[in-house]
Amino acid sequence: MKRVYVKDVREYLEKAILLKGWIHKIYDVGQISFIQLRDKTGILQLVVEKNLREGLRLEMAIEVEGCVEENPKAAGGLEIKTTRITVVGQGDYEVLPFAINNGVIDAHLETQLNERTISLRSPKVRAPFKVQEEIVEAFRTFLKSQHFSEIHTPKIIASGTEGGSEMFTVNYFDRRAFLAQSPQFYKQMMVGAGFERVFEIGHAYRAELHNTWRHLNEYVSLDVEIGFIDDEGDLMDLEEAFLRSLFPHLKETCGYELQLLGIELPEIKEIPRIPLEEAQRVLLEGYQKKSPQGNLDAEGEGIFSRYIKEKFDSDFVFLTKYPASKRPVYTMPDDGLPGMTKSFDLIYKGLEITTGGQRIHQYTRLRENMLAFDLNPEDFDFYLNTFKYGMPPHGGFAIGLERITMKILDLDNIRQATLLPRDLKRITP
Ligand code: AMO
Known about the structure:
It is built from 12 helices and 16 strands. The mean pLDDT is 97. The chain has 2 domains: 6-89, CATH 2.40.50.140; 123-417, 2-Layer Sandwich (BirA Bifunctional Protein, domain 2). Strands 6-10-11-16-15-14-13-12 form an 8-stranded mixed beta sheet, sandwiched between helices. 29% of the residues lie in helices and 26% in strands. The two termini are 37 Å apart. The chain has 429 residues and is an alpha+beta fold. It has helices at residues 50-53, 109-114, 116-119, 123-144, 184-195, 232-253, 255-260, 276-287, 298-312, 363-372, 381-384, 401-408; strands at residues 16-29, 32-39, 42-49, 61-70, 78-89, 149-150, 156-157, 169-172, 175-179, 197-205, 218-227, 273-275, 316-320, 343-348, 351-358, 394-400. Bound molecules: aspartyl-adenosine-5'-monophosphate (AMO).
């Protein structure tokens, strides 16, 4: 007998089919029970006679044979007249850690993360990951249509790329190595190696001591790097075009999940591009909000996003022209604005989801900048040598996958957009 997924059952009206999934809910009504079967595509009502009902418990994995019938009272207008149920995965528990069949889970997020297999069985908890999968799909499809190559670079590396001390160390035989904070140097090297336009979807590691709603110690980075650019405007154009293609893709592929989560995706209008200094001035003059030197803090990002929403009706804003003192060594200075760089952040609904910019592509200039940053150029020979052999003007950006997922879906905590989060306190499950 053919295995059918719940979302396709309507095609088999009056026919006998085989379904596979988990027991979501059981209602006993005298001699008959109504069992909700849940598979990865949805939930369906089974009508089960008493002799088949015995021994069944919530969340057991079952295989069901039965006939598809119409019933206007059942959710989706269909139900299964069950002829056979086989338990293929036992319920070896005393009580479930929490109920997952009441829409939302009534348990603290930490408890849900501890019991991840069970919490993810809730369609609402799992829905963000379907959306996340489709963000990745849209990213890949969009970039491949623009002559990009997908690359995979090492995550065990010999030196940091983003400055600061936020690196995890690893014992690498008799040496000390690090987990990559980003594929930054390697994506640039691959531009120079002739791939010219590259992207990578990979893990990034940050040993940051922040345990907040928006920080993870391991996250997925959607990285892009392009050669032969005019300036950072080309990069913002590309990211904007990607976002414009993303929302229709999500509407097309994630209708069920977006509806489940109550999300309506607006059309993305032109994204304003505003120099950081101007944003800081607006915050100070309009909201008496002081900003840290060369950046906005989390509160400032929130207030400025609300200002942009009111003024431009946009959920997104590019902040441009960050000072060189606040950007990594590879960032291209803006020769027209001393002390500033050709870099940007993208703020979405009050949260930074992207950093990007043009890079220094001249060997001598990059070497000198390393010295100015108190770095020893010899330690970076493997990277620096790339710049001796005709490195074109280039730049790129990186989008935090969990952050963009979280903001698209209006989730409160980045962990709700992370299957198995790694944070200051958590390395299991
Ligand atoms: P940056 O360090 O700003 O830039 O990181 C880029 C994007 O990655 C995400 N991100 C994080 N997400 C969750 N938890 C974290 N701890 C975390 N840290 C960063 C954010 C952020 O905007 N090499 C540059 C990018 C480039 O210029 O191409 C870089 O890594 O969404």
